[in-house]
Amino acid sequence: MVKKIQLNDEQWKTLQFLLEAASRQAATAGIQVPDRLWSNGFVAIDPHGSKLLTLQGRERLSQGR
Questions:
Q1: Where does residue 19 rank: exposed (0-12), middle (13-18), buried (19+ CB within 10 A)?
Q2: Domain count along the chain
Q3: Tens of pLDDT along 24-37?
């Protein structure tokens, strides 16, 4: 279980945008990811250079706002 880290509105919306982009297989290049999401392991880059949610990022979203 991922510790429930407090996220501000921008960070929370970024996680939601990345989840939506993944479900639509949309490009993520235009999504600006705050450093805090990278440092907490919620976001990674795939071999093609696309940003994606990690399992930790998905679990944090499932914990709710």
A1: middle
A2: 1
A3: 988 888 899 999 99
